[in-house]
Design brief:
With 381 residues, the protein is an alpha/beta fold. It has two domains: 2-129 and 320-380, NAD(P)-binding Rossmann-like Domain (Rossmann fold, 3-Layer(aba) Sandwich), CATH 3.40.50; 137-314, 3-Layer(aba) Sandwich (Rossmann fold), CATH 3.40.50. 34% of the residues lie in helices and 18% in strands. β10, α8 (203-208) and β11 form a beta-alpha-beta unit. α1 runs parallel beside α2.
Length: 381
């Protein structure tokens, strides 16, 4: 089995799909890797490091896309590159499947099996393969650092001869993986932290990190079987906004992380709420790439609204590219190890496995994921 790792070509992408350490680990099991020349350049890793780990290095991107049995990457491919792949090949990467039905059709038409890293089930067994969680963890950290850099006051309380400086007030909205890491990071920097989530079950986790949980009676809420927050009704959203408005007005930093899997991110913070904050305050919208939690945020931009800095930076994990690459590479490596056939020395599609059943979205010319089938049907109406 020939495994090809092409260089990431997406604009502004600084992360790598696979590091030499992962290559070395899998090469010891009989995996045959070919990486594109310059694949590690964004993180300062030379081709020689991949060769030392057991991979071949080649500049023939098109030829290897056409001949490889397994293709590993980070970002989704250009549609034109899918047309180069051979029938029966397997492609693994983020695919943004709920917004990329054209790519799904292209994979099906080409007879290429497609695994979406976003669709790895959130189970205990699959935890070490869960790229969404590993990257969200880093995004939560980076969001706090980005806010601290832009804020006009320091995070911790300081007692000085010139007087006492009060700690910054940070409000985290959404306490999933990114939110919990944001809480932990803000607390380590000495801020006073409040947090809110629609799932009452996370209150204990928030308290364990030293933050205060903002309680809002929304009636029946909860989470999906995969651990994502369920979408709220319009009435619940109105109650949520009303209760949060006071906390936002008193905060120096607001970080939003709320997302509904497979759907546009809900708008939680209105422009009026942003304007209620003091000039010099900072809002970071971590959901900006999926629609945004902040009404006035703009993807890829930093703007000011009533003197408040509204940060809509894209690819937050890419701002700590080496660690983000290390985690994604480990996620890919663990996926390959789980489905590695030692005798055949090949990655196998064990269709009966619950992990494979969740993440293998295209196989034998057809879309096979029920959640995506329903989303496609809904989009066609």
């Amino acid at each position: 089995m020939v495994i090809f790792v092409p260089k990431e070509t997406g604009s502004g992408e600084t992360r790598l799909p696979l590091l030499p350490d992962t290559v070395k680990k899998l090469a010891a099991k009989g995996a045959e890797f070919i990486v594109e020349s310059g694949v590690g350049a964004a993180c300062g890793i030379a081709d020689a490091a991949y060769e030392a780990a057991g991979a071949q290095v080649s500049g023939d991107r098109a030829g290897l896309l056409a001949s490889a049995d397994l293709i590993l990457r980070l970002r989704k491919p250009d549609r034109s590159e899918i047309g180069l792949m051979k029938r029966g090949a397997i492609h693994v990467s983020y695919l943004e499947p709920f917004e990329s039905f054209d790519l799904i059709d292209a994979f099906a038409a080409q007879g290429v099996s497609a695994i979406a890293m976003e669709m790895i089930p959130r189970t205990t067994l699959a935890q070490k393969m869960d790229a969404l969680s590993s990257q969200a963890n880093l995004a939560g950290y980076v969001a706090v650092i980005a806010a601290a850099e832009r804020l006009d006051i320091v995070f911790p309380m300081m007692m000085t001869p010139a007087g006492t400086l009060k700690p910054a007030r940070v409000f985290i909205i959404g306490c999933g993986v990114a939110g919990l890491q944001a809480i932990a990071t803000a607390k380590r920097l000495g801020a006073r932290v409040d947090a809110f989530d629609t799932r009452p079950a996370v209150e204990e986790q928030v308290h364990s990190l030293g933050a205060k949980f903002v309680k809002v009676d929304l009636g029946e809420t909860g989470e999906t079987k995969d651990g994502y927050a369920k979408e709220l009704t319009d009435e619940q959203r109105a109650k949520q906004r009303e209760a949060m408005a006071k906390v936002i007005a008193e905060s120096d930093v607001v970080i939003t992380t709320a997302q509904v899997f497979g759907r546009k991110a809900p708008v939680i913070v209105t422009e009026a709420m942003v304007r209620s904050m003091r000039p010099g305050a900072v809002v970071v919208d971590l959901a900006v790439e999926t629609g945004g939690n902040v009404e006035c945020s703009k993807s890829g931009e930093e703007i000011e609204v009533g003197g408040v800095k509204v940060v809509g930076l894209e690819n937050m994990p890419g701002r700590v590219a080496m660690h983000a690459s290390q985690m994604y590479s480990a996620n890919l490596g663990n996926l390959l190890e789980h489905f590695w056939d030692k005798e055949a020395k090949a990655f196998t599609l064990r269709l009966e496995d619950e992990i494979m059943a969740g993440c293998l979205i295209v196989h034998e010319g057809a879309l096979r994921n029920d959640m995506l089938k329903k989303a496609r049907e809904a989009a066609a109406v």
